[in-house]
Amino acid sequence: MKTWAEVEKIQPLASRIITNSIKKDRISHAYLIQGERGTGKEAIARLIAKGLFCEEKRGIEPCNECVNCKRITSGNHPDVHWIEPEGKSIKKEQVENLQKEFTYSGLESNQKVYVVKDADTLTTNASNRILKFLEEPSQQTTAIMLTENSRAILTTIRSRCQVIDLKPLNPASFRDKLKEEGMDNRNASLFSVLTNNLDEAKHWSEEEWFAESRKLMVQLIEMFSSKPEDVYLFIHSHLLPHLKDRDNQERGLDLLLLAFRDILYFSIGNEEGLVFFDSQEEIVERLAMEFSQEKLIEILNAILQAKRKLKQNVQPMLVFEQLMLQIKR
């Protein structure tokens, strides 16, 4: 999304709130933009920054052609600073370095913007540093905090930001868009519930990693019914080596969640809701006979709990081992 008109189609309320502020020249000194993955948080952050730096603005819309717009798009504008987790969290030292940068005059103007990605991963010390920053805002400083998990943000930080809630996107509409782009129905159905980013979905559909991940999840689920004693060996020798970083581990749990959800859907007769398996596949019918509906609901809750633990920076090996134990019970 490169224009507010595009945001309006997907996030009408958020677009209206921010563009009204732009029209009145009342951009907030701090925003907390919260929404699920793929709902447009980073695109909105860039548009806010462009609105402050664009040299050829057309009403509320940035031109997207001037030097400032192009540098913001590429992440290379000297007065627009992005902070994201180093490893699994945003640390105090990162915020201290940002504060140091902001003691200097802007390289090209006195306007400065900083964007904090995954703001829910701020350590306690980093959160306190950001809070101090927000409590003493410069008149020409704009802070933009992005998060999927607003409950992990300090209440004192939330109270100093204008909170923008992004609504979940419509998977059915995105699935149709993917099919229009030439993706087969099965992949379009799966990727439409995993992301709302067109480029990301296309990349995944062509990526060997994703195809291998789906294969590993099927093998793992079958193993629970046929060779449960081999599950731990499988996750240590195959699954975890494949899921090398946090993003991959989260995507892996997403796939596992969708696979077990499909089995539950099949068992209750909701075959149209399947996205991981094809309803004509013999395997899904067989697996639906292996797991009771009560057990499937228990497994889905366990996977959701494992996803939360990953977000809380629990050691991945421990998260997966505990999850396997819960599924085996």
From TrEMBL:
One of its GO terms (cellular component) is DNA polymerase III complex. Transmembrane segments: none annotated. This is DNA polymerase III subunit delta'. PANTHER family: DNA POLYMERASE III SUBUNIT DELTA, REPLICATION FACTOR C / DNA POLYMERASE III GAMMA-TAU SUBUNIT. Its EC number is 2.7.7.7. It holds the Pfam family DNA_pol3_delta2. Residues 238-328 form the DNA polymerase III delta subunit C-terminal domain. One of its GO terms (molecular function) is 3'-5' exonuclease activity. Coiled coil: none annotated. It is an enzyme of class 2 (transferase). The gene is holB. Keywords: DNA replication, DNA-directed DNA polymerase, Nucleotidyltransferase, Transferase. One of its GO terms (biological process) is DNA-templated DNA replication. It catalyses: DNA(n) + a 2'-deoxyribonucleoside 5'-triphosphate = DNA(n+1) + diphosphate.
